[in-house]
């Protein structure tokens, strides 16, 4: 939408999800306020017919298309929390938004124009008390919704004539988000200004205490001494250096004998409580006895033994045992596999170079399938990490794997001191060209995985930590092949060689995904004495960009790092609330399982393309969790938990 002084038609969604069209005209008395730093233009419009004013904050098309997402999500949290006739007058009120367009925008009800700082000199003690109580009430409401305002000051708090309210949520964050440096002292605490730790609603309590000092006409040096007995007792710890040492807004209201906003029960609470019961029962259970060796499993997970060098392992195609030997070696050519003679390789460095491109023909003793070949790097390195992606057709497995590989190439594993290289250079390059580049360079939607009789690895990497190397192989199979009614086939044999599973949950499909239970049933031989499956797993709610304005997805989809069990608890609660029992099966039936929100694209496609480009969001977090469960993750270098 072009920013002009002419009438405009606004098509938007209300917080209740209704589609609305308003014709508006510009308020000639309020000039637009562009911000070059944020790429947002703010303008006041008047609705044709009744002259209702509204504030539109519109994003420049050249800015990050998700720049307004947190502001919209925070406004929606408040709107969904309070009914129309019970919306707190002390809070900013969102009227609507439009997100998936070239110039996203959010609409707000205009606050009073008078900044509290403009009337500070003429406010008496009773009025100052009222401003403080109204502000703390607003902060208590925000804290109950998990929102940190971050911008409380004498301009953002407005005077209503009788009390105060907060204007807007332009720089809001969610409680628990990694802090980003914002604000200046004295309004922002040192933690907030420097971006230390995680956002906390008590960040705003600091700002409220500073505002009280402004209203009382105090300077910073004598602030504590000149508060007077009443406020000194009340706000004695409000300026503590760490948020955890400060009182909450609700606690301060109780001290003032002012009504404290009731904390509404969240529809997510039931699922969160059930998740905690599951965690507690797993923690109390005795450690399961070691699983007896399976007939076809000839090696076991051991970071110490497995990383030392090549050993016998199962072929992921036929499940026969195979070990490394410099015999039966081949290279791939345009005409197929061609025998490789290392006797003509020459010096050692040339020999190693050719081995990195070599494949070894599997002995294939049972002869159940035709001749097949395994990358030499897969056989020469330490114990493999074979990871299977599980999910129905169109669940997003292929896109998620492309997102995982894209984030790995951006260096996400480098935080842990892990270096990566391709198991097979040509194979990895083909995956990069046909998947990663098509999605992230060209912005094209990827086609679904097609059913085949046998499944080879989709891509593979060598994980290097110091002198240790281990191959990590990903297997992506068409969802049709995993259905419970489908007879066991060679295409699903890789499950017997899997070390970990990624269950891909589609949150927008209406019918239940039956592949999760079917795969778990096929691995019944790996149950422990307690009946739980013994294979590290993750559940990934993919396509989470489509849910980015729903709680709790709104917080996690923008989180930079996983936060232990907190994300798993929220994902479980989200799926539980929506009756997605089938997608929770891994958590119920597998001993070690974490749950995650992720998006491989960051936005909705239009006609098979992503108009703003595609970008992965948190795709590597599930993999990092799996590597931790497998004991293959060194300590993080950057210390950012």
TrEMBL record:
Domain Double-GTPase: 387-571
SUPFAM superfamilies referenced in this protein's UniProt entry, alphabetically: P-loop containing nucleoside triphosphate hydrolases, Protein kinase-like (PK-like)
CDD domains linked to this entry: Ras_like_GTPase
Domain of life, source organism: Bacteria
Protein known as: Double-GTPase 2 domain-containing protein
């Amino acid at each position: 939408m072009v920013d002009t002084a002419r009438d405009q038609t606004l098509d938007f969604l209300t917080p209740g999800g209704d589609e609305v069209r308003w014709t508006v005209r510009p308020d000639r008395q309020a000039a637009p306020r562009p911000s070059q730093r944020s790429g947002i233009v703010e303008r006041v419009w008047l609705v044709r017919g009744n002259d209702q004013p509204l504030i539109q904050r519109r994003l420049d098309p050249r800015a990050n298309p998700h720049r307004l997402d947190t502001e919209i999500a925070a406004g929606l949290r408040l709107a969904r929390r309070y009914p129309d006739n019970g919306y707190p007058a002390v809070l900013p009120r969102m009227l609507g938004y439009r997100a998936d367009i070239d110039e996203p925008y959010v609409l707000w009800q205009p606050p009073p124009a008078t900044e509290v700082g403009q009337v500070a000199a003429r406010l008496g003690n009773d009025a100052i008390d009222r401003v403080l109580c109204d502000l703390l009430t607003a902060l208590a409401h925000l804290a109950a919704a998990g929102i940190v305002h971050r911008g409380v000051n004498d301009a953002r708090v407005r005077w209503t004539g009788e009390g105060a309210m907060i204007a807007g949520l332009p720089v809001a964050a969610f409680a628990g988000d990694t802090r980003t440096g914002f604000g200046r002292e004295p309004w922002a605490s040192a933690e907030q200004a420097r971006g230390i730790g995680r956002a906390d609603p008590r960040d705003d309590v600091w700002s409220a205490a500073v505002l009280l000092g402004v209203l009382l006409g105090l300077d910073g040096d004598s602030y504590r001494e000149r508060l007077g007995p009443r406020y000194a007792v009340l706000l004695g710890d409000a300026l503590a250096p760490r948020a955890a040492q400060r009182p909450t807004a609700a606690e301060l209201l109780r001290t003032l004998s002012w009504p404290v906003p009731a904390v509404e029960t969240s529809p997510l609470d039931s699922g969160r409580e059930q998740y905690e019961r599951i965690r507690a029962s797993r923690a109390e259970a005795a450690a399961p006895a070691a699983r007896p060796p399976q007939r076809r499993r000839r090696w076991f997970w051991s970071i110490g033994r497995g990383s030392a060098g090549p050993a016998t392992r199962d072929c992921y195609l036929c499940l026969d045992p195979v070990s490394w030997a410099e015999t039966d070696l081949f290279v791939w050519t345009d005409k197929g596999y061609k025998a490789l003679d290392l006797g003509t390789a020459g010096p050692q460095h040339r020999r190693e170079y050719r081995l990195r491109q070599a494949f070894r023909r599997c002995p294939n003793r049972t002869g159940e399938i035709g001749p097949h070949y395994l990358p030499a790097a897969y056989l020469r390195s330490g114990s493999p990490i074979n990871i299977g992606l599980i999910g129905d057709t169109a669940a997003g497995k292929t896109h998620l794997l492309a997102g995982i590989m894209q984030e790995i190439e951006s260096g996400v594993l480098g935080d842990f001191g892990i270096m990566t290289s391709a198991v097979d250079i040509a194979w990895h390059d083909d995956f990069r060209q046909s998947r990663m580049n098509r999605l992230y360079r060209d912005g094209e939607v990827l086609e679904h995985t097609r059913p085949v009789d046998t499944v080879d690895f989709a891509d593979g990497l060598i994980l290097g930590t110091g002198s240790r190397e281990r191959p990590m192989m990903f297997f992506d199979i068409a969802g049709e092949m995993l259905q419970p009614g489908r007879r066991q086939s060679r295409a699903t044999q890789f499950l017997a060689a899997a070390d970990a599973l990624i269950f891909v949950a589609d949150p927008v499909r209406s019918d239940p995904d039956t592949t999760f239970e079917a795969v778990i049933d096929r691995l019944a031989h790996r149950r422990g004495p307690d009946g739980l499956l013994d294979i590290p797993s993750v559940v990934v709610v993919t396509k989470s960009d489509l849910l980015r304005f729903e709680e709790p997805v709104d917080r996690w989809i923008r989180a930079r790092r996983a936060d232990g069990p907190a994300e798993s608890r929220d994902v479980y609660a989200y799926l539980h609330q929506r009756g997605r029992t089938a997608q929770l099966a891994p958590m119920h039936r597998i001993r070690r399982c974490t749950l995650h929100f992720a998006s491989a694209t960051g936005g909705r496609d239009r006609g098979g393309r992503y108009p703003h480009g595609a970008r992965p969001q948190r795709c590597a977090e599930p993999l990092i969790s799996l590597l931790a469960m497998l004991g293959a993750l060194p300590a993080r270098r950057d210390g950012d938990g």
